[in-house]
Amino acid sequence: MTKYIVLEQIENGNLKWYDSVTINSNPVNSEGVKINVKNGERLYD
Predict the structure, then answer these.
(1) What is the pLDDT of residues 7-33, one digit of tens each?
(2) Given this model, what pLDDT does residue 29 score?
(3) Entry's Gene3D superfamilies (predicted)?
(4) Contact 43/35 with Cβ under 8 angstroms?
(5) How far apart are CA 5 and CA 41, in angstroms?
(6) What pLDDT is recorded for position 26?
């Protein structure tokens, strides 16, 4: 589902392929998080 949303936002011009994402505390503290990220960490491709 996340991939679909990202691709949709790219298509709509709201994101670019090389945009980075800053992680906030909501997803980090959510149950079911499967990647090891910290609050404020930036993700790059």
Answers:
(1) 999 999 999 988 887 766 665 566 766
(2) 60
(3) DD-peptidase/beta-lactamase superfamily
(4) no
(5) 21
(6) 64
Q: What is the phi/psi pair of residue 42, to 5°? A: -105, 140
Tokens found for residue 41: 């960490």
pLDDT value at 2 more than 80: no
Q: How many CA atoms lie within 13 A of 21 on its CB side?
A: 13
Helices assigned H by DSSP within 1-45: 2-11, 25-28
Q: Which residues pair with 11 in a beta bridge?
A: none
Tell me the CA end-to-end span of the chain in Å, nearest whole number: 18
